[in-house]
Design a protein that fits this description.
A 4-stranded mixed beta sheet has the order 1-2-3-4. By secondary structure, the protein is α+β, with helices and mostly antiparallel strands. The chain is built from 12 helices and 4 strands, in the order H-H-E-H-E-E-E-H-H-H-H-H-H-H-H-H. It has helices spanning about 1-5, 10-20, 50-65, 150-175, 180-190, 210-220, 225-240, 245-255, 255-265, 270-290, 295-305, 310-315, and strands at about 35-40, 80-95, 95-110, 115-130. Strand 1 (about 35-40), helix 3 (about 50-65) and strand 2 (about 80-95) form a beta-alpha-beta unit.
Length: about 325
């Protein structure tokens, strides 16, 4: 089997050497909690409105994300989950009502290193919200939709994705550790403004949907329980063990490949799997570049089959 061939030290030496160089050492605590967010708002296409409103939006969103208490635990600022939010406003459909995209990138530190592993990367092109400089940003799990759907949709969007980010972070440190926060994201979906208010992105669109409803539905679906176990093993038993037990860590990471193949084969068109590869493709490419030459080509072919959209990245593995 593939994994067994890697247990021989001379076949994993090049990978472990790479990973030891890739993960530069420093001391950190094991579990990062809560959010250290950075928000950027871009609105170059919008004309006929004072651009200060977008700077105000950026400032208020930064305060909202960083000051809101998302978890039940208290941690120091340097232990928070790092997450970047980038809103690109493409049009103003009516006064102070905007449409655009929201891109999010989150990461978590790898134990005893200064390397940060990406945990969530997404671009949501179905955002719509109302904002003016006097708008107060508020969110409550018990009143997601609020009194004004278009105002509340902005904070619902941010809350939903923040809970997703926290869920993946917790799942990477403890098997199914993010369940509580995924359930909070599900609560946002169930109670957020829906398409009757002409607000897109929350509604169910069948088994092949690619929106917020589809994502949380797949994360929580028992069909994907192997995904969450794979996610935990990759981070906690792989990356986090790389410096302490390089050979064992490499073997644990390589065991993920057949599990990924099964998940990809069984869930063709899955939105969750698409997001996984969007998030992790570059990290896998870095890893594959240092794989033993006699096994590298097979691994590359495996990833090209699993992740067709990133096949050009895998082709560049040498």
């Amino acid at each position: 089997m593939l994994c067994n061939s890697y247990k021989i030290q001379n076949k994993i030496g090049s990978i472990t050497t790479f990973m030891l160089l890739f993960l530069l050492v420093f001391s950190i605590k094991l579990k990062a909690q809560d959010i250290r967010g950075n928000v950027e708002v871009t609105a170059h296409r919008i004309q006929g409105i004072d651009n200060s409103v977008f700077k105000d939006l950026e400032t208020n969103l930064n305060a909202f994300i960083n000051n809101h208490k998302w978890t039940d635990e208290d941690f120091a600022p340097d232990e928070r989950i790092e997450c970047n939010y980038h809103i690109v406003i493409n049009e103003m459909t009516e006064k102070n009502v905007f449409r655009g995209t929201l891109s999010i990138q989150a990461s978590r530190p790898v134990y005893n290193t200064n390397y940060k592993s990406p945990t969530f990367t997404i671009q949501d092109s179905e955002i719509k919200f109302y904002y003016e400089s006097s708008t107060v940003l508020q969110f409550s799990d018990n009143d997601v939709a609020g009194t004004n759907a278009l105002i509340s949709n902005l904070t619902a969007l941010v809350a939903y994705y923040t809970y997703i980010v926290i869920g993946f972070d917790y799942d990477s440190f403890e098997l199914n550790g993010g369940e509580k926060y995924f359930r909070k994201a599900e609560n946002v979906v169930l109670n957020a403004p829906k398409d009757q208010d002409n607000i897109p992105g929350w509604e169910a669109k069948g088994t092949q949907g690619r929106n917020r409803h589809a994502l949380i539905n797949q994360i929580l679906n028992p069909r994907y329980k192997d995904f969450r176990e794979m996610w935990y093993n990759y981070h906690r038993k792989g990356l986090d063990e790389m410096l302490q037990d390089p050979e064992g860590a490499v073997n644990n990471i390589l065991k993920i490949v057949p599990e990924l193949k099964n998940l990809a084969r069984s869930n063709t068109g899955s939105y969750l799997m698409q997001i996984y590869f969007t998030t992790k493709a570059d990290e896998w490419v870095n890893f594959l570049n240092k794989a033993p030459q006699e096994e590298k080509q097979k691994l590359v072919q495996d990833f090209m089959q699993m992740d067709v959209s990133n096949s050009n990245k895998y082709r560049r593995v040498r």
